[in-house]
Specification:
Radius of gyration: 17 Å
Low-confidence stretches: none
Number of helices: 4
Helix content: over 70%
Length: 64
């Protein structure tokens, strides 16, 4: 549910930035760019946690 909701928030907040990309530089909050950037960071943190766990539990004898 988190991923679907987050993608929806990114899509809703990013419409203006996609239409007028220069707004991201001049008006990051108003254009929704800041919200998109924060949501992408949340996604990256979740995926990084999964990768870190995978690396931590890696075993040469166990094929995943």
């Amino acid at each position: 549910m988190f991923f679907g909701r987050t993608l929806q928030e990114i899509a809703e907040g990013g419409g203006l930035v996609l239409l007028l990309p220069w707004l991201a530089k001049w008006f990051p909050k108003l254009s929704g760019y800041t919200k998109i950037k924060n949501k992408v960071r949340e996604f990256a943190a979740i995926f990084q946690k999964s990768v870190d766990e995978h690396i931590k539990t890696y075993s040469e004898n166990y094929e995943r």
